Amino acid sequence: MILERLVIRNFRQFKGEQEIIFSDNKERNVTLIHAENGFGKTTLLNAILWVLYGYKGLTPDFEGKTHLIHNGMAHSYRKKPNELEAMVHLTFSHDGARYMLSRAINLAEQEVDPKKDRMSLEILRDGQTFNQDRPQHRIQAIIPDGISKFLFFNGERIDELGLDKNRGEVTSAIHQMLGLNLLKRATEDLNHANVRGKFRKELADNTSDEKRDLITRQEELEIKQMSADSNLSTAREEIQAIDDEIKTLEAKLAANKETHELQAKRAQLQRQKEEFVAQADEVNKRLAKLIAEDGYTLFTTELVAKGKAIMEDLRSKNQIPAPVIDTFLQQLLDEGTCICERCLDPGSPEYEAVKKKLSDAPNQDFNNAVSALDHAIGILEGVAEATGENLKQLTRERAELTQRIRTIEGELEDIHQKVGRKDDEKVKELEESRRAKALKRDELTSRCGSLKKEIEIISEGISKLQSQIRKMEDQEDKAAQAQRRVDAVEECGRIVEELLQAETEELRPLLNNEISEHFSKIIDRDYRAELSEDFNLRIRSWVGSEDDERMEQDVALSTGQRQVKLLVFIASLLALAKRRSEVPTILKGTAGSEYPLVTDAPFGNISVFREGISRWVPNLAPQVTILLTPSQYDGDVEKALRETGRVAKRYYLAYHGPKNTLRQGANAHLTVEGKEYQQYFEADEEFTEIKEI
Asked: In what order do the strands lie in the sheet with 2-11?
């Protein structure tokens, strides 16, 4: 997971719309946000947590959680509360896809229940947009709230994580970051009482007593459809305008001698990607058509085999082809003469013999049925074989096109990185602007996809309601089936839980090695870090002289050392998660995962370790965002971070408000790299702006 863009609107002191674009440069992975205490650092951290997890994600030290909308604006809109809302939008990439996550709450909703908000999630993958039906469920799958405190935290309060007091949360973090969350979630889902309850109740009440007010619902859907059509048209117009702006920026990059070749290559790759995406879309359509029309034939192998067996059995008994049919024998009896010209008088032995044959002989319908069966088996077998071959071919084509698209995306990313590393500030500015607009375009493209899907769903809903209005059908009771499911999930839950425990135990020694390696780089004393069997991170040392019996015991750590301990644990977990695919354990095919780190004041209590931590923090994760005050930044931290060369983007928070609201010790100006920036503006109303350096 790599953070790309954060947009905040009317969230606490951030009045209006504010934006941060995080550094995605792999070599310069640090984004710094400078701010005095009280200017909004904690609010920024909580904005990310809120968009990911809602009300329950907000940190304990975040005061006034029930009032997320800017106070001054809330007062102005108190008579029209539905027209004012707080919104946070987060764009991030994960596992080859781009995600656009939004969460909002208006003033009326906040007054009723601030814990209830509106959330949406769109996914852009391989040029196609998908609207996530259960957005919170998907976010939990990518980055569960159980690990959020290890990735988004206040460094001055990091000791509150208390690894020895929250072993369950530590175990949960290990499961997610090391690729075991699938097993963990399966165990939780299978063992949850609601699963069995759901199956028992699932269709027990699934028979309608009366028709609902279907006509009213149809009218409501038609209004929604009109609104969605209008929003789709507006979004398409915005995309066209952004496309024109991007073309202008790319033309400037193409005209620059330092980036001319890179931009020409990028344009070529973008054209190739568009062609491959179009081809992939066509292949997907052909694949969907094949499965819809002939996919069933792939499941007829057993049916064809049984049909052939029936035919062979009939042939072995000389029943097919039929030697004689009943109509021929009946004709002989009616004429009273056999084919050998004997008389077939009723009651004679000859007559009775032919009559007996008549009762056993097949009729013409049997002959026709056998012929049809033989013909159908041949056709079904041929279609199944052709369907299988076509499915393999289309699947290969789709895989090849997907790989080509991913390769091109990797090359485009390399070009973005190279252009972003140019020394020319104008080039960097053009590239960052191009990227910001591309992110906005992707967001709108995702929005269009979401709206088209919404319109499609609404249209289907209208058709369904129209059908239901004409005829209401009761649904089948499936209580017995639900009971069988209950029995199955209980046994599966037991097996998966045993597998999860075994896998966790295999990974613990590897995590211990990572912890030991990272700890030794910061603490130069004779200390040893260890993660115990019950996931308690302990710092151990030997006591006693060589002459006496030496023993190892836990070390009583200072506040700064405890902070280092927690940082080491987080770094170790992130490092092992990244190379998870290389670790040979029970669970095969597990991919490595990357997570961002957003920390507020990580240098607060570490005193003598401050310079070492400053050099080490950029290596904690593939992407690091640090919020810090001028007093925390000045001196050793500034020098160490500058020497790492890892800082790519900088922002500062500019506070507007009366003089008496400015905290004691806070300065009106901020100095960064020798340049001065005004960070306090006297104003009647309090609010904060995000400004890029």
From this structure: 14-21, 2-11, 85-94, 97-106, 118-125, 128-131
Identify whether the C-beta of residue 529 lies closer than 8 Å to the C-beta of residue 541: no
In a domain, 665, yes or no: no
Q: CA-to-CA distance for 307 and 377, rounded, in angstroms?
A: 7
- Count of domains in the chain? 2
Answer whether residue 98 is part of any domain: no
677 in the Ramachandran plot: left (φ > 0), alpha (ψ -120 to 50) or beta?
Answer: beta
Question: By residue range, what is the domain housing residue 351?
Answer: 299-392
Residues 379 and 426 occupy one common structural domain: no
Question: pLDDT band at residue 61, thresholds of 50, 70 and 90?
Answer: confident
Residue 38: the pLDDT is 87
- Tell me if 381 sits within 8 A of 303, measured CB to CB: no
Res. 208: pLDDT tops 50: no
Question: Residue 143 — pLDDT band, cuts 50, 70, 90?
Answer: confident
| 255 and 309 share one domain | no
Is residue 228 a part of any domain in this protein? Answer: yes
Of 337, 371, 392, the position where a domain reaches its end is: 392
Residue 230 lies in a domain: yes
Of all helices (H) and strands (E), which one includes residue 34?
A: strand 30-34
CA dihedral angle for residue 638, residue 640, residue 645, residue 648, rounded to 10 degrees: -40
pLDDT at 476: 44
Q: How far is Cα 43 from Cα 62, in angstroms, rounded to an integer? A: 8
Q: What number is the average pLDDT over the span 436-448?
A: 88
Residue 198, C-beta contacts closer than 8 angstroms, at least 6 positions apart: 482
Which amino acid belongs to residue 285? K
User: Average pLDDT, whole number, for the chain?
Assistant: 79
Please, which pLDDT band fits residue 510 given cuts at 50, 70 and 90? confident
Are both 317 and 387 inside the same structural domain? yes
Q: Residue 190 has which token pair?
A: 């299978």
> With 70 as the cut, is the pLDDT of residue 357 above it?
no
Instruction: Tell me which of 370, 392, 414 is where a domain ends.
Output: 392
d(CA 572, CA 595): 12
Which residue do the tokens 């809602």 mark? Answer: 54
Note the pLDDT of residue 44: 95
Q: Does residue 437 share a domain with residue 359?
A: no
The answer to whether the CB of 97 falls within 8 A of the CB of 109 is no
User: Following DSSP, what letter does each residue of 506-535 receive, concatenated?
Assistant: HHHHHHHHHHHHHHHHH--SS-EEEE-TT-
Amino acid identity, position 635: G
pLDDT given for residue 495 in this prediction: 77
Provide the CA 266 distance to its chain's centre, in angstroms: 28
Q: Lowest-pLDDT range, 235-249, 529-543, 588-602?
A: 529-543
**Are both 386 and 316 inside the same structural domain?**
yes
DSSP state letter for 205: T
